[in-house]
Amino acid sequence: MAEAGIASRRKSEVLIAEGHVQVNGETVTEQGIKVGIHDQVSVDGIPLNHAKLVYYLLNKPRGVISSSKDDKGRKTVVDILAENVDARVYPVGRLDYDTTGLLLLTNDGEMANKLTHPRFEFEKTYVAKVQGIVKNEEMKQLRLGVKVEGRKTHPAKTKVLDTDTTKRTSLVELTIHEGRNHQVKKMMKAVGHEVIKLHRESYGFLTLQGVQSGEFRALRTSEVMELRKQTGLSE
């Protein structure tokens, strides 16, 4: 089920336990049942097809939802790929509506689950334009970890890229491996700076080189193999 992009491995286990899965027409609720190539697996009566796994890297533009659909009718990241990608893909994690930059999309539920799991500590690098002149002491606080909603963040890698003393703004680079909601914005607020603009530059070893805003590309075979290696899927 995870390989077919229906759900992550954990969510698949929940679907099985709740009686949504059938093997050869019979509902199963036990985990770990072996199925062969001639067995027909269905979810709520819909046959499960072993879809080809695909992986895409998108340079998400501002004002687009990191979701497969939006109840308010706003444009989603899946809409951007829809005209040229036949597979049903989903974003790996999310970027805020007003945040731009690198986002992965795939129909590989198991891979997506691994990539977002804290255990694997995939580093994500962001560039943030913030209000105020950032001080070295504030950068040190971020490197040591700051309290966000009662929990201390893991140490971040930080760098001040530029300051504008006239407009009283700073451009800073942060590298983190956690994935809490609005984390970079909350971290910067914790040291006294509101984020004006936020852009994700990289995700692990993947970068946006050659991919303009609103554009996407398929991951190379070597990149997929490296992701599988780093998440333990190739073992």
Automatic annotation (TrEMBL):
Task: Write down the top EC class of this protein.
Answer: isomerase
Q: What is its EC number?
A: 5.4.99.-
- Among the record's GO biological process terms, what is one? enzyme-directed rRNA pseudouridine synthesis
> Per UniProt, which keywords does this protein have?
Isomerase, RNA-binding
Molecular function (GO) terms for this protein are:
RNA binding; rRNA pseudouridine synthase activity
Q: In this protein, which residues make up the domain named RNA-binding S4?
A: 1-52
Which organism does this sequence originate in?
Paucilactobacillus oligofermentans DSM 15707 = LMG 22743
Q: Which family is this protein grouped under?
A: Belongs to the pseudouridine synthase RsuA family.
> Which residues belong to the signal peptide in this entry?
none
**InterPro entries documented for this protein:** PsdUridine_s_RsuA/RluB/E/F_cat (IPR042092), PsdUridine_synth_cat_dom_sf (IPR020103), PsdUridine_synth_RsuA/RluA (IPR006145), PsdUridine_synth_RsuA/RluB/E/F (IPR000748), PsdUridine_synth_RsuA/RluB_CS (IPR018496), RsuA_PseudoU_synthase (IPR050343), S4_RNA-bd (IPR002942), S4_RNA-bd_sf (IPR036986)
Pfam families membership = PseudoU_synth_2, S4
Cross-referenced CDD domains, in alphabetical order? PseudoU_synth_RsuA_like, S4
Gene Ontology cellular component annotations, sorted alphabetically: cytosol
Asked if the Swiss-Prot or TrEMBL record annotates the protein with the keyword rRNA-binding, the reply is no
Top-rank taxon, per record: Bacteria
What SMART domains does this protein's entry cite?
S4
Name of this chain's protein: Pseudouridine synthase
